[in-house]
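Recall from the previous lesson that a structure prediction takes nothing but the amino acid sequence as input. Here we apply that procedure to AMP nucleosidase from Thioalkalicoccus limnaeus. The sequence below is the only information supplied.
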Amino acid sequence: MSEPRDPRTVSLADEEGVKRILIDTLFGLWSLVNNLTRLRPSKRERYRVTIFGSARTQPGHWVYDEVKRLAAELAALDCDIVTGGGPGLMQAANEGARSSAAGERAQSVGIRVDLPFEQEVNPFVQEAYEHQTFFTRLHHFVLLSDAYIVVPGGIGTVLETMLVWQLLQVRHLRDTPLILTGKMWSELVDWAARYMLRPGFELANPEDMAIPRCVTGADEAIAIVREHHARWLQSQTQQRIGDSPSCQEDRPS
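The prediction returns the following tokens.
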């Protein structure tokens, strides 16, 4: 006489039952990862600027040189530079971060996604990460960054920009500059305002259109980051003072 079957088990022949277990397990893993990403360091040692841009723009193009200069000046402010780690304007930013004019402590970081046509991280990346999916890679950018600068780019750059824009809209990100450089991005914001704020058919709020800071070039972007970085440094100093032993003793129990 066979033993009674455990009602918790599912036969591999039960296709629907197996699908349910797989789906429940995947959602459980996502829930676990989401819970872990709630953890944050008590303080950040480094200020990091992510620069999103095209993989197609080659050295020698004036935009390449301008992005390189942008990153170099930010690195000179002691900002780490984060990119997608690939060629084009990502390489320009990493190259600028490593240039002789850059700050000695600034790091050049690349967060790649595994693609068959981009085999190697660009040679100017000091610290590289690689993801299998765009979704985890985008999340990594969000966890790592204090400011974002968007330079000319294609569909991938649009994806990155829209993610950050929405996270700021719904306040999953706060006090994080999203700086769009160049006419192509200001026209994108104009398009969004024109079609999403139509009277009687509103699809967004007017304040949502003010989230991206549209600028014409590198110098304006640097000025915005410089101001935000200064506030960040001030908050770090205040936090260190507040965490000092003398201040701890003065606090009421």
